[in-house]
Amino acid sequence: MSKIHVTTSINGEPAEFLAEAHESLLDVLRNNLNLTGSKEGCGSGDCGACSVLLDGRLVCSCLMLAAEAGGHEITTIEGIADGDKLHPIQTAFLENAALQCGFCTPGFIVATKALLDKNPDPSETEIRYWLAGNLCRCTGYDKIVRAVVDAAAEMRGS
Amino acid sequence: MPSLTYVAPTTVSDAVKILAAASGPTRVMSGGTDLLVQLRSGRTKPDLIVDTKKIPGIIGITQNADGGFTIGAATSGALLGEHAALKAAYPGIVEAAQLIGSTQVQGRASLAGNLCNASPAADSVPAMIAAGTTVTIAGPAGTRTAAVETIVVAPGRTSLAKGEMVTAFHLPPVKGKTGDAYLRFIPRTEMDIAVVGCGVSVTLDAAGTITAAKISMGAVAPTQVQVDPSCIIGSKLDDAALARLDAAAQAVCNPIDDKRGTIEFRTKVAGVLARRTAAIAVARAGGR
After folding, report:
1. What is the number of structural domains in chain A?
2. Separation in Å, CA of A92 to nearest CA in chain B
3. Is the dihedral of CA A4, A10, A16, A19 positive or negative?
4. ipTM metric
5. Res A158 pLDDT > 90
6. Which of helix, strand or coil describes residue B278?
7. What is the C-alpha to C-alpha distance for residues A86 and A82, in angstroms, rounded to an integer?
């Protein structure tokens, strides 16, 4: 079986890769492209640890074939910071201690980015519903919600 | 892993040719949020996946000159929720589609996928049935139109023939005082599969009397089922009409017993949800 040649853009840079038909975008990000920030939690779209942006839209990279990415722009957790300068969402997660083991954190940060790009001033209810597809087994979510509120305020102010 | 081929044709006629010529197990892909889970678990073992999303028009919402809507088969729930005119005209369909999965799933999961995955618990399907949705189906013999309730024939099975695929959904123009609604019961507030779902559309006359209605239940039988609307037509959805609706909704139930709910529970909840959903639809239609 010949591999599929996929041309795409990842974190603002043109990218090309070869994928087997059955491989998910997450498989290729992690195994072929060495972008291991996106995590595999469940592999079935329930946990959100593999969240990426596809043309700015939040999706689970485990629920997409790599071949589907052709012609689209992908943003992963590796593309959120500006070089060595953390994104305000990342800073807010650190300052609020919104992580313990950290496995879910890339997914939460990417999902938060998608939320705040769409709605710069979400209510706590909106935050909680938006993030319902991101599971965290450590924090109890409260600190994550505080971090999102703080990040939103910081981003509105700057 | 046996060899799997992925193709993404750019026209409906190419897609139909590929589907018609396929000799092995084949799956049509739109958002892929059910398909990838099934691939991974081994529940489906296709040797060919035909991705429809490169076909122009397969994603998108058009309001037609008559006020109705045409929705491309692979249009995601997120796009439905961002379309102000569709949301105003058919809030029930939009809220049903937006109950499917997480924000992430919303970004991909489509109406055609929700329909053709043929789950009894598919949230968008009772809402689409209630609203009188039709689908365009392309196939080797050309295109045909069918009512959405004729597509699902059993859990995981559709009435689509070999080589056929859904290309679009059509919603009629909203006439007069008409409103729709969808409610589902799940044991929490988000991220779950319907234990019972209910879609209702009603049309009222100037005095607020129901002149037409369509009521569809999900997750209470092997396929979506309809409740005979004569139990509320001619009423203003007073207490007597609500009691008749409750009984009629329970009467169409033929549910399974599983970890989500017992037969008895699902049946009782069907009556309650039918009453609540109808009340919202009537309020949206301008009844009260």
Report:
1. 2
2. 22
3. negative
4. 0.96
5. no
6. helix
7. 6
Whether residue A33 is found in the same domain as residue A58: yes
Tell me if chain A has a CB within 8 Å of the CB of B40. yes
Query: Choosing among A22, A75, A109, A135, which should be mutated to test the B contact, i.e. which has the most B CBs within 10 A?
Result: A22
Domains of chain B in sequence order: 5-171 (3.30.465.10), 177-284 (3.30.390.50)
Distance from CA of B277 to the nearest CA of A (A): 22
Query: Residue B103 and residue A65: Cβ atoms within 8 Å?
Result: no
The domain containing residue A35 runs over which residues? Answer: 4-79
Domain boundary residue among A27, A47, A79?
A: A79
At B14, the amino acid letter reads D
Write the CATH number for A53: 3.10.20.30
* Cα A3 → chain centroid: 26
Dist CA A147 CA B255 (whole Å): 43
Q: Do A8 and A71 share a domain, yes or no?
A: yes
Angle between the A142-157 and A88-95 helix axes, to the nearest 10 degrees?
140
Local confidence band at B188 (pLDDT 50, 70, 90 cut-offs): confident
- Could you tell me if B113 lies within 8 Å of chain A, comparing CB atoms? no
Closest-CA residue of B relative to A64 is B32
Q: Do A96 and A140 belong together in one domain?
A: yes
Contacts of A4 in chain B (CB under 8 A): 6
CA distance B233 to B231: 6
**A45:B3 CB<8 A:** no
Q: How far apart are CA A136 and CA A100, in angstroms?
A: 9
> For the segment B116-160, what is each residue's pLDDT rounded down to a tens digit?
999 999 999 999 999 999 999 999 999 999 999 999 999 999 999
SS3 call for B116: helix
Q: Nearest CA of chain A to the CA of B32: how many Å? A: 7
Six-digit token pair at B159? Answer: 């009435």
Nearest to B4 among A22, A48, A64 (CB): A22
Query: What's the gap in Å between the CA of A25 and the closest CA on chain B?
Result: 11
A11 and A56 fall within a common domain: yes
Closest CA to A115 of A94, A129, A100: A129
CA-nearest of A41, A22, A20 to B38 is A22
